[in-house]
Write a structure and sequence with these properties.
- The protein has 479 residues and is of the alpha+beta class.
- It folds into two domains: 221 residues, no CATH class; 134 residues, Lysozyme (Orthogonal Bundle), CATH 1.10.530.
- It has a six-stranded antiparallel beta barrel.
- Helix 3 crosses helix 13 and helix 5 packs across helix 13.
- The radius of gyration is 28 Å and the shape is elongated.
């Protein structure tokens, strides 16, 4: 969210509010206690005040500086932290319904939170009332740009000086228990009690907990993507439940679960930049139309597509069926091939012959004609989901012509799915909605095997699909 420097403003209302409501604030001086309980006398540097806008509400942020040392070019920082983990202090004002409000804000601009599956670098912004009550805590993940809000949980500090941070990180295996509606871990010293995590309207659980270390002390943070209308939003973007990078958050993104080329590149490093950029744009443009409305659906969709495209090395994919190993061919298609069964085909006769193989294994299925018709090769897998069989080509053509354009002729020109990136991705989104998300509820507990059977019919490449899915859990979120 864009910050704007405020010039030539006197801030009379804000200063008057502080004189009445600001605890320990008098004559422009605020008495402040750092984390290590050191009393400091600080002053607000109004010359560096900035503003940001969230849902048409203007927020004004003013930094603290040291009055004693007159360091007006440097924000007050907690001396108990390392250079990379410094805490910065400021005061934030806003006016809602003609009422001026203010809070103290702590910012940790560069820190690391250790989640169960990864270590994530980012920024923590927390808002506190003048009497010390914590109001909101936000974490912005630098890699994914995702902004997460801390749920209302009991505060807890975890300390175990006999275990090194490295061992602590290895021992953390997070488990979410929806029955008790609580977050816990397998290590007793990390048990985390909570008041209530609640559920979304779909019954989906979307809670993540992380740990932040200072020496041997670990502070826990549990996050959810939602925030109430009275939230104090992060100045880095988002707020009030909206996670995104828009400079105008009152305008919602086209997709309810947008992504970015950068996030996709983190999850799929082998993908070409051109393919990932096109994929991100197409998901953001069309994902919502096909029900990609949460990160769980997006992750499963991407994991399946990555398996079919070599990690998105290209979006223009056509099934080759060019086998060089008779043993592998017999293992993949045991229904059709055998070395000893005289009623099955000899796999050696189908090596390095994609057309002959496709016409055999795809014959007389889902609208395809006989082996001699050539339908098997004509309607072989294409697009990032490898759309296969004449019926699927026909059904997608009918859908596309009814909802996008009336001149798509896939039955006579099936190769267009390979030469056209939008069609390659849209055909996959259509198939995912038709065959997967319309049949099962997809949430954090949906197994990759269940999705794979609906997409592939079998469990072909299941280990690769699981591997890609595990990567998406680290890097892919609704931005």
């Amino acid at each position: 969210m864009k910050n704007t420097l405020l010039q030539q403003e006197t801030f009379i209302n804000e200063k008057s509010w502080l004189k009445v409501n600001g605890k320990n604030y008098k004559d422009g001086i605020l008495l402040f206690y750092t984390k290590d309980n050191v009393r400091q006398q600080v002053i607000l540097d109004w010359s560096t005040a900035k503003k940001f806008v969230n849902n048409n509400v203007v927020y004004t942020e003013v930094n603290f500086v040291s009055e004693l040392n007159k360091e007006r070019d440097k924000r007050i920082q907690n001396s108990n932290n390392s250079i990379s983990d410094q805490i910065q202090f400021s005061v934030v004002f806003r006016t809602i319904n003609d009422t001026l409000e203010s809070v103290i804000k702590y910012t940790i601009p560069n820190t690391t939170l250790f989640f169960s599956d990864s270590a994530r670098k980012g920024c923590i912004e927390s808002y506190h009332s003048f009497d010390g009550k914590t109001l909101d805590v936000w974490f912005t993940d630098f890699a994914t740009k995702k902004i997460m809000k801390r749920k209302i949980l009991e505060s807890q500090i975890i300390s175990n000086s006999s275990i090194t941070q490295e061992k602590q990180q290895i021992k953390r295996t997070s488990v979410y228990d929806p029955e008790s509606v609580c977050y816990s871990t397998t290590e007793s010293q990390y048990s985390y009690s909570c008041i209530s995590l609640g559920t979304s309207s779909s019954g989906d659980y979307n809670i993540e907990c992380g740990w932040r270390y200072i020496g041997d002390i670990a502070t826990t943070f549990c996050f959810s993507g939602s925030g109430g209308s009275d939230s104090w939003p992060p100045s880095s973007g988002g707020g009030d439940g909206y996670s995104g990078g828009s400079s105008n958050p009152s305008i919602p993104p086209k997709s309810p679960c947008p992504t970015s080329k950068e996030a996709l590149k983190s999850a799929f490093p082998a993908g070409s930049n051109a393919s990932l950029n096109a994929l991100a744009n197409l998901i953001n443009e069309y994902g919502g139309k096909f029900g990609i409305d949460n990160e769980h659906k997006l992750r499963h969709f991407l994991a399946q597509a990555a398996t079919e495209t070599g990690g998105f090395s290209s979006l223009q994919r056509a099934e080759s069926l060019n086998y060089s190993s008779a043993t592998r061919l017999a293992n993949i298609y045991p229904k059709h091939f055998s070395f000893i069964n005289p009623f099955k085909k000899n796999p050696y006769n189908y090596l390095h012959n994609s057309e002959r193989l496709a016409n055999l294994v795809y014959r007389n299925r889902y609208g395809n004609g006989s082996e001699a018709s050539g339908d098997g090769f004509r309607y072989r897998g294409r697009g990032i989901f490898q759309l296969t069989f004449k019926d699927n080509y026909q059904n997608f053509q009918d859908y596309y012509n009814s909802n996008f354009s009336s001149n798509l002729d896939l039955l006579n020109h099936p190769e267009v799915l390979v030469s056209n990136d939008p069609l390659s991705v849209i055909s996959a989104l259509w198939y995912f909605k038709t065959r997967v998300s319309s049949k099962i509820s997809i949430n954090s507990n949906t197994p990759v095997e269940q999705v794979t059977r609906l997409v592939n019919g079998k469990l072909n490449g299941i280990n690769e699909r699981k591997s890609y899915y595990n990567k998406t859990k680290i890097y892919i979120f609704c931005q």
